[in-house]
């Protein structure tokens, strides 16, 4: 149901056409696949999970210092219960997260001008945390951009179609911590939602909980393959492809033991115009700036005002 694709077939050149065809089928069907052979160093993956553990283990007062509520740029610590990914449910997600965006200089004119999403990251006082997070952000973004080459080919576009669209991106890296279930009725780790961006690259720690609901079907568990990425199509790419690709609802149940995950939301540069790609038929949606689309989606998710 959720296919496993080996990116080496594409990167090494041994089976580029086969990989592109399999990716295209997954993107049009379940909207989810597992990606092996992606080339991201397992030590970097382990490093980011270890830093996540160190951060979430800090006293509350330390985490409060980097609260996401202190900035309008969706960067920092989001406490347990802040978000409601299923905004229709009335249920708050039982998870905490730490988020970074494209790392910007505090004196960058766009930061000084207060442009949306052009902010600086907040950092906890933890040795190695900043370097590890930034190294992982760069590696995961680069993987996302390489994946976009295969996506371009699948859509009969030039392979480099998306290459220039991700150098100062809206992309966000989020480490997540789900505390163990208490057994209370109706608890949810992350409410049912689809992701907002282009593609999401998710690293999981082996503790079950993530489920997807392919269109018209029942909820199914996403298997864990050590070191592999759970890749899914986001709403922005669905819109961009004029609904040829599918972004699929997913959720996280409260886990038996604590659960960690690392989500890289690959997003384009703010000024990229998301308009029906060539060859995808009569446009169903009006063109929109990537930043405006993302803002509209984030506004619906946060249950407290960010940036207050
Ligand atoms: O933690 C997970 O496995 C998934 C998280 C997720 O879907 C999200 O943050 O968008
Ligand atoms: Fe998600």
Structure write-up:
The chain has 308 residues and is an alpha+beta fold. The protein has a single domain (4-58, 73-299), classed as B-lactam Antibiotic, Isopenicillin N Synthase, Chain (Jelly Rolls, Sandwich), CATH 2.60.120. The protein is 28% helix and 19% strand. It contains 8 helices and 14 strands. It has helices spanning 8-11, 16-28, 42-56, 60-64, 109-112, 129-154, 235-240, 290-301; strands at 4-6, 32-36, 76-78, 96-101, 172-178, 190-193, 199-204, 210-212, 220-221, 229-233, 250-252, 259-266, 273-274, 288-289. It has an 8-stranded mixed sheet. It has a 4-stranded antiparallel sheet with strand order 6-11-8-9, with no helix packed on it. A two-stranded antiparallel sheet has the order 13-14. A hairpin with a 7-residue loop joins strand 8 (210-212) and strand 9 (220-221). The N and C termini lie far apart (43 Å). The mean pLDDT is 95. Fe (ii) ion (FE2) binds next to loops.
CATH architecture: Sandwich
- What coarse outline follows from CA principal-axis ratios? globular
Helix content: 25-40%
Average pLDDT metric: 95
List each distinct ligand once: 2-oxoglutaric acid, fe (ii) ion
State the distance separating the first and last CA atoms.
Answer: 43 Å
Structural class: alpha+beta
* Highest-level CATH class: Mainly Beta
Residue runs with pLDDT of under 50 for 5 or more positions:
none
How many DSSP E strands?
A: 14
- What portion of the residues fall into strands of 2 or more residues? 15-25%
Q: What is the chain-wise order of helices and strands?
A: EHHEHHEEHHEEEEEEHEEEEH
Summarize the biggest pleated sheet: 8 strands, mixed
GO molecular function, one term: metal ion binding
Pfam family, one: 2OG-FeII_Oxy
InterPro entries: DIOX_N (IPR026992), IPNS-like_FE2OG_OXY (IPR044861), IPNS-like_sf (IPR027443), Oxoglu/Fe-dep_dioxygenase_dom (IPR005123)
Keywords: Iron, Metal-binding, Oxidoreductase
